[in-house]
Amino acid sequence: SQTIHQWPATLVQPVGSPLSLECTVEGTSNPNLYWYRQAAGRGLQLLFYSVGIGQISSEVPQNLSASRPQDRQFILSSKKLLLSDSGFYLCAWSRRPGLNSPLHFGNGTRLTVT
Amino acid sequence: DQQVKQNSPSLSVQEGRISILNCDYTNSMFDYFLWYKKYPAEGPTFLISISSIKDKNEDGRFTVFLNKSAKHLSLHIVPSQPGDSAVYFCAANSGYALNFGKGTSLLVTP
User: Fold this and answer.
1) pLDDT tier at B6 (50, 70, 90 boundaries)?
2) What is the dihedral of CA B53, B43, B5, B77, to 10 degrees?
3) CA distance B71 to B83
4) Residues with Cβ within 8 Å of residue A39, at least 6 apart in sequence
5) Contacts of B74 (CB under 8 A, 6+ apart)
């Protein structure tokens, strides 16, 4: 069966510090990978998605970036965090081709920027 | 621009009764719709989906109805149980990713 791991579960970082959140998927090959964010009182906002190694699509311009160095690894980064980056970050995967296929989420990372 | 809307932020239902969660969308190109359930501090869990070629899909206590002409879908939970208390998100397919609503918090009281 497929599993998705996301870490850390919680993170408190000062403004201006860097960020690296990691996500890995097991039990499947060539998944589509996604980063979503849930800000307080808001829905799930798509940040990035990837259909293959090194292929990243950004949905929202911001100071975050994503990378996919391996087939089942997806990393969310920032060089300098802003207060507005606080939120609940969720990694997800879906089967290819991805259309009409549910997304399966990890347990999320609660990021607080102070 | 919110293309998937859940206009009720919360809903309270008695145990054993029916819970009806509603969702509206604006993009007529959406052709696949899903419902997710989310507990605090956890990721959303996929519940049920429906393709635009259908108007109903059932899975146990959960049934999703789609009204394409009204651009409306709903999730029915019968009978509701206290463990169903969670936030429910409606989502619609948009290319490779999903557009989500803001969620409806369901509370099932004993």
Assistant:
1) very high
2) 60
3) 29
4) A45, A86, A87, A88
5) B20, B21, B22, B23, B64, B65
- Do the Cβ atoms of A100 and B31 come within 8 Å? yes
Phi-psi region of B71 (alpha: psi -120 to 50; beta: other; left: phi over 0): left
Asked if A107 reaches chain B (Cβ–Cβ under 8 Å), the answer is yes
Higher pLDDT, A101 or A67: A67
Q: Which of B4, B44, B96 sits opposite A32 (nearest CB)?
A: B96
pLDDT of residue B90: 96
Give residue-wise pLDDT tens across range A5-19: 999 999 999 999 999
Evaluate whether B24 touches B101 at the Cβ level (below 8 Å): no
Indicate whether A99 pLDDT > 70. Answer: no
Whether A98 shows a pLDDT value over 70: the answer reads: no
- What distance in Å separates residue B95's CA from the closest CA in chain A? 7
Is A21 an interface residue toward B (CB < 8 Å)? no
